[in-house]
Amino acid sequence: MGESRGGGCCPPMDLMRSETMQLVQLIVPMESAHLTVSYLGDLGLVQFKDLNSEKSPFQRTYAAQIKRCGEMARKIRFFKDQMSKAGVLPKESLEKESDIDLDDVEVKLGELEAELVEINANNDKLQRSYNELMEYKLVLQKAGEFFSSAHRSATAQQREIESEDSQQAGDDLLESPLLQEEKSIDSSKQVKLGFLTGLVPREKSMVFERILFRATRGNIFIRQTVIEEPVIDPSSGEKAEKNVFVVFYSGERAKSKILKICEAFGANRYPFSEDLGKQAQMITEVSGRISELKTTIDAGLGHRDILLQTIGDKFELWNHKVRKEKAIYHTLNMLSLDVTKKCLVAEGWSPVFASNEIQDALQRAAVDSNSQVGSIFQVLRTKESPPTYFRTNKFTSAIQEIVDAYGVAKYQEANPGVFTIVTFPFLFAVMFGDWGHGICILLATMYLILREKKLSSQKLGDIMEMAFGGRYVILMMSLFSIYTGLIYNEFFSIPYPLFAPSAYDCRDASCSEATTIGLIKVRDTYPFGLDPVWHGTRSELPFLNSLKMKMSILLGVSQMNLGIIMSYFNARFFKSSVNIWFQFIPQMIFLNSLFGYLSVLIIIKWCTGSQADLYHVMIYMFLSPTDELGENQLFPHQKTVQLVLLFLALVSVPCMLLPKPFILKKQHEARHQGQSYAPLDETDESLHVETTGGSHGHEEFEFSEIFVHQLIHTIEFVLGAVSNTASYLRLWALSLAHSELSSVFYEKVLLLAWGYNNVLILILGIMVFIFATVGVLLVMETLSAFLHALRLHWVEFQNKFYEGDGYKFAPFTFIFTANEDE
Known about the structure:
This protein is of the alpha+beta class. The chain has 23 helices and 15 strands.
């Protein structure tokens, strides 16, 4: 489904029948093939057929060019990802696409990618070194605090011992502050302790400590210190919470185990000196190196941002150029080489009105490419079913999408979208009727319509995107809801005498809560819609039930009759007299003999004010058609009319079932009698196209299959006439539900809160009323009524005439190339 085009190139838009299509053949010289396909893509009115379907993608003529474009597209995606991470937005380029060459783009993209990859690699190395130095600095600080604390503790213990025993020397204690040794022990037998420092992830710290203890059988001493702020891990580049650890051990065997465990737990180890002087020197050196790395990293990032800004200036231009070239080569791969290998042959579908535009594009391509031979354009004859093409605008496109969701129309069959533009929002409004709620939806829709230019260029969420796409459908739904709301006389369930005062008054003050027996007519009938006096009375519900139920049946029978009438226009258009005489006429007779008659009875009862029971009339029309009607008689000779209608309904069923299969069989036999000896009056080209086009002229006629299909179709229509009519009662049910829900929210929330004479309760009641109205009535009820209206159109209306077994016209175009993801 295409968008309608401005200017004078296209005839007036016609939604009833799809555009007349033609199968065209283009013979294009090799030197102008690329430019020809490019111009046809700009035109967007040719759907190419794949003439190389038996070949794999790697065996086709332009496989190397597609691979080349794919590589450039990969580089562009890489640039897009890098710009997104850096917060650089692409800009619209003032340079024209025709001014740049694909070879220059390829070279430029390669150079920029190599430079950007090198910058990223250097930055990653510097950033890893920077993160390692930051961790190293934390280890020096935290482990240094631990050693300083241990040294102070040892000094205090030494002084305490000296005060108690002045004969002991304190020097030995200072040499081993962490492990107290007796002075009498031989120095040659003292154990030299080693230690390792580093960082371990906090979530693994307890397990890390437990594994170390078990692996060394408790022959270690470990201390851990929590780092308050998360640190960036050099390996992953992500922030992580870590602990600084110091492990004391004895022996190389224990050291080997500890190193393996550190590696398994991802614990980063860093060298550390016991000497306090060396510790201070190392901290100074590390801080200096961190400062230098920070300056270097900032300079690298600045250079990278400048490079990305340069890429962003021409990103859109390059992106569109590469995508366009890739689409062109994909299309060229669908074309076949002729015998001389100097021309490409293309076949495709196009609208008849586009012939002149296509020929102009071919001529321009031949001139611009300096080709000595022009392209050949010719129309081919075929029996293949053409694609379906409706030209729509932004108003009709959403409705056409609703119809196409059921099935794309067969080529040139009647399009339900013409009527759906009006009937869909109207049936929605019948179920949703409240002019207060309609105004709320109208205001929301007007926001989408007034800002459609800005919103159309933005990326919206799934639900918002769907609402924005159907904004004109929702506009129609809101307008019809206001109209039906005025008919129902409901504004958030409150009646207003907008057009005149009520025609009725109470006889006395006690009749306000009574039935309408207490009312007397004092004025002319209320001019438009429902008299507001009905609201709030005891007879309101029975009266509205009767009114809306009968109205639903009238609307349903009318729409089903419209569907059957459309089947007549389809049969007439396709010159099928069988479908007119043995499908349209029996269906009209059957439906209107029963439910058309019921609709007439409803109108007569409304006009005469009769008390006849229509349920009784319709039931006994079948059970006892010869009985007298008595008080249920609405007009003279009603019994005779009912007998005639019942007879016509019964006769119409075999008329739908039996004649059509036999007539089709007879037509098939007459059409193929002596076909083997028919003269060959077609040209070679048309014969070739018919053979390749999938003609079904020689397929066998299965009478049993046709008969069973007609039997199913007849049974479906007869039973569907009853079930579909009953299905339209959902109009009554949902309208009643919407009205009652709205009344409950008004009376049980708003009025109840008002009655407390408390400001806080009133504010709370208003908030609950607003949220309930928006959440339930304006969102859930809207969606519910939308889905039910959708079902009534798909099942009850479209199945009367709409086959929907066609396929969309999908022309080769560049319109959406820039917005589609690879």
